[in-house]
Amino acid sequence: MRKNLFILLGLLVATISLANGQFEKAMGKTIPEIFKAETPDALQSAINQLNRIGEAEADRWEPYYYVAFGYIRMSDMYESGTDKDKYLDLALEAVDKGDQINPNDSELTALRGYVHMMRLVVDPATRGMKYSGMAFNSFQTAVQQNSENPRAHYLLGRMQYGTAQFMGNGDGGACESLNRAKELFENEQPESPIAPQWGKETNEKTIAMICNKEGE
Fold first, then answer.
1. In a domain, 73, yes or no
2. Is 17 part of a structural domain of the chain?
3. Torsion of CA 198, 151, 145, 187, to 10 degrees
4. Are residue 109 and residue 181 in the same domain, yes or no?
């Protein structure tokens, strides 16, 4: 009886490991599509696959994180504010799904702020008062949740700079945030192959554009 129990336990562990391996494999194949897709159709195809993965793995937040990121990217492919808002709505829904699975996570909180920031960009003159506060709150909360999250500092820096430029007031502390992000990116050790890892190159380009007055 004990021998049979050990055999059954071994089979169960093997099944769980196989399922986990399939999840990692499926995510590893689909995540790059979110970043390299150049058309809404290509993005939507990758997003649909991530939603299927999320439905199959109800305890994993990562599929919804990348769904949200995909919809943020898609919003930027359209000129119309109505279209942008439609996809940002879908991005926020995905962030909410991820947050229900993994609440108070710095990566999800930062991505929520990214949605707010992109919403602001649609019409800064009329949306500034509402969405700037929401974006800043999300980014600052993300930093508090995990001060070692480079994406939280990077996005905060972008928000600081955009706000300062709109107000005509220096960089608003952006370079401090962006340089902190650079330091964290250089030392980042992702928890898993599918953990968020984006932002390093764009952060460096942003620093070069707005901060490197002395070739830093």
1. yes
2. no
3. 80
4. yes
Provide the terminal-to-terminal Cα distance of the chain, rounded to the nearest Å.
68
- Of 73, 103, 133, the position where a domain reaches its end is 103
For the chain, give the percent of residues with pLDDT over 90. 80
Domain match, 187 and 146 both: yes
Contact 130, 98 (CB under 8 A): no
Closest to 34 measured CA to CA, from 79, 74, 7, 94: 74
Specify the number of domains making up the chain: 2
> What tokens appear for 54 in the block?
């999320």
| Structural tokens at position 88 | 């940002």
For residues 109 and 205, state if they share a domain.
Answer: yes
Nearest to 165 by CA among 204, 128, 208: 128
Q: Alpha carbon of 136 to those of 26, 50, 132: distances in Å?
A: 34, 28, 6
Q: What's the whole-model pTM score?
A: 0.88
Q: What is the DSSP letter of 39?
A: S
**Residue range 111-135, pLDDT digits in tens:** 999 999 999 999 988 998 899 999 9
Owner of token pair 């599918």: 194
Is 169 within a domain? Answer: yes
Task: Give the type of residue at 91.
Answer: A
Q: Which domain holds residue 201?
A: 104-216
Task: Report which of 101, 46, 52, 54 is spatially closest to residue 71, judged by C-alpha positions.
Answer: 46
Question: How far is the C-alpha of 137 from the C-alpha of 117, rounded, in Å?
Answer: 11
Q: Is residue 14 part of a domain?
A: no
* Residue 158, φ and ψ in degrees, nearest 5: -60, -40
